[in-house]
Amino acid sequence: MSHDYQQLANELSGKLAEFRKEIPDTMKGFGQMSRAAHSDGALDNKTKELIALAIGIASRCQGCLAFHAKALVELGCTRVQFMEMLQVAVYMGGGPSLMTAAEALLAYEGFGGERAA
After folding, report:
1. CA–CA separation, 27 vs 110, rounded Å?
2. Cβ pair 61, 67 in contact under 8 A
């Protein structure tokens, strides 16, 4: 399965905008939860995004791959950091996570993340 993760993120963003209009209380609550989860604490935001993407891989969530890969590129995640996160995700999720990890790498590279040397 091949995805244009930039296009997927854009398409999903449009639908999420519809949700903000049609189910505003739910989206407001989700937004508050997201801000709380990403607030400064013992873990920095990049580490939290790496965790979120690992969970997205284990859950096989294509939208999660797009949004969290994009965030990681914007946060300056290196390929080495990204690959170590993929190791943990595959370790925890087995074969299905291995396939989704490969898709996550496509998303990371598609948003401008480092490519293999």
Report:
1. 27
2. no
> Is the CB of residue 101 less than 8 Å from the CB of residue 75?
no
Residue 109 identity: E
Answer yes or no: are the C-beta atoms of 53 and 90 closer than 8 Å.
no
Are residues 35 and 27 in contact, defined by beta-carbon separation less than 8 angstroms?
no
Q: Which of 45, 104, 30 is nearest to 69 (CA)?
A: 104
Rounded Cα distance, 117 and 111, in Å:
17
Per-residue pLDDT tens for 47-67? 999 999 999 999 999 999 999
**DSSP letter assigned to residue 113:** P
Q: Name residues whose C-beta falls within 8 Å of residue 14's C-beta, 6 or more positions apart in sequence.
A: none
If phi over 0 gives left and psi between -120 and 50 gives alpha, with beta otherwise, what is residue 108?
A: alpha
- 19 and 27 in contact (C-beta within 8 Å)? yes
Per-residue pLDDT for 2 more than 90?
no
Q: Answer whether residue 1 shows pLDDT above 70.
A: no
Q: Specify the pTM.
A: 0.88
